Amino acid sequence: MNTIQINPADNVIVALSPLAKGAAVAVPGVGEVVAAEDIPQGHKMAVRAIAAGEDVVKYGLPIGHVTGDIQPGQWLHTHNVKTNLSGEVEYVYNPTHPVVEPVEPETFMGFRRADGRAATRNELWIIPTVGCVNEVARAMCEQAQDLVEGSLEGVYYFPHPFGCSQTGADHAQTRRLLVALSRHANAAGVLFLSLGCENCTHQQVLDELGDFDHERVRFLTCQDVADE
Asked: Residue 49 and residue 38: Cα distance in Å, rounded?
């Protein structure tokens, strides 16, 4: 599809890619409309005849009026469409309100989190606090693939080269990004994996997290255990 009609009431469609003169477009509720001229990408093409002075309807609402008679397939832009706003300095907006039929609330097959957010995926994430443990995170991720079953869709790790000798604002930004990543709703559970001697310490991550779900977020420091 190289065009889109945003609302069934629209008398124009929008070209998602350039339309060459003579290109035929199937328009729901109208039929086939042939481009009378080249239509640039992102621009409007009339799908019905519009008399001079009549409104151009897009989004189901008037966005202006045509300055001359328009035939289906013509390009509509600033050369033949003018605003409905009045005045030189002070503009007056006179909106019209179409009747909108009520619809049932839409849902999707997702995962409701304890904090009320909805996720589109259900995964376990290992987040290294320092690049030195990237390979440990990789090995742990590979060995945990047997957990992937039922509603759990995957176990992943997020390697990066930061967290060791960073200081100042650079160090703070790494810490903020890692903690922000851990808050993503698609992560059902998060393991922060530390080495134990890096600048981005376990305690700094805790301070950045603030109040958090202890059932969802856990920590492991490699130098504190004999075998990760």
From this structure: 18
Token code pair at residue 71: 């035939």
The pTM of this model reads 0.55
| Per-residue pLDDT tens over the stretch 183-206 | 999 999 999 999 999 888 889 999
Q: Within the chain, what is the greatest distance between any pair of CA atoms?
A: 82
Among candidate residues 118, 217, 190, 199, the one with its CA nearest the CA of residue 163: 199
- In the chain, the amino acid numbered 77 is H
Using CA atoms, how far apart are residues 184 and 170, in angstroms rounded to an integer?
22
- Which of 59, 29, 27 lies closest to 46 in space, CA to CA? 27
- For the record, the structure tokens of 4 come out as 């889109």
Q: Mind listing the domains of the chain with CATH numbers?
A: 3-82 (2.30.130.110), 111-224 (3.40.50)
Q: What angle do CA 104, 110, 112 make, to 5 degrees?
A: 95
